[in-house]
Amino acid sequence: MHGHYQHAHTRAWATRIASFDGFVMVTAEYNRSTSGVLKNALDHLYAEWQNKAAGFVSYGVAGGARAAEQLRLICGALHTAAMSQQVTLSLTTEFEHYTTLKPAAHSATALDTLLDQIVAWSTALAPLRDASRAAV
Ligand SMILES: Cc1cc2nc3c(=O)[nH]c(=O)nc-3n(C[C@H](O)[C@H](O)[C@H](O)COP(=O)(O)O)c2cc1C
């Protein structure tokens, strides 16, 4: 489903997001929340997020878990299904010199589970997406 947007950049963003059924949202943690940039990108659209699935990969001192929790609230407003599994990368133990990613085995396993959940849920939500397209 497509929203009606005034600006060309919003329409381009909407077309891009409309082309996907599921998402992996990657976020750092800033002051115990997600980044303003990602929040802004989410806020620009509505219809294109609906009845889709999203999973979260976060990083920070505490694995960015609090940023991912903020994204769950936002996804609730957008009618995007938030996956239970999440990948929380520790800045102190899973990044070399706080820059080069060296994920622990448990993070790689968690990512596999997360991707499986996104595929399963985004597939299962197809009838709802079809119904909302038909209603327009
Ligand atoms: C203003 C600011 C606030 C931050 N707050 C948090 C925080 O609450 N929790 C945390 O784990 N890391 C926090 N950090 C550290 C960032 O998560 C870390 O620097 C991360 O690498 C930023 O990601 P980026 O380099 O992709 O922008 C903060 C960093 C900044 C600059």
Write the layout of secondary structure elements.
Blueprint: H1 8-18, E1 22-28, H2 36-43, E2 52-60, H3 65-78, E3 80-90, E4 95-96, E5 100-101, H4 105-124, H5 126-135
The protein binds flavin mononucleotide.
The site of flavin mononucleotide has 9 residues, from loops.
Offer a quick outline of the entry.
The protein is of the alpha/beta class and 136 residues long. The chain has helices at residues 8-18, 36-43, 65-78, 105-124, 126-135; strands at residues 22-28, 52-60, 80-90, 95-96, 100-101.
Could you tell me the number of beta strands?
5
Q: Could you say which overall geometry the principal axes of the C-alpha atoms support?
A: globular
CATH-defined superfamily = Flavodoxin domain
Count of alpha/pi helices: 5
Level-2 CATH architecture: 3-Layer(aba) Sandwich
N-to-C CA distance? 8 Å
Helix and strand content put the structural class at alpha/beta
The fraction of residues assigned to DSSP E strands is 15-25%
Which cofactors or ions or other ligands sit in this model?
flavin mononucleotide
Low-confidence stretches: none
Q: What's the number of domains?
A: 1
The radius of gyration computed from the alpha-carbon positions, rounded to a whole number of angstroms, is 16 Å
Q: List the strand order in the largest sheet.
A: 1-2-3
Outline the biggest β-sheet.
3 strands, parallel
CATH class category label: Alpha Beta
The share of residues in helices is 40-55%
Assembly type of the chains comes to single chain
> What integer is the average pLDDT?
96
CATH topology: Rossmann fold
Please write the string of helix (H) and strand (E) elements: HEHEHEEEHH
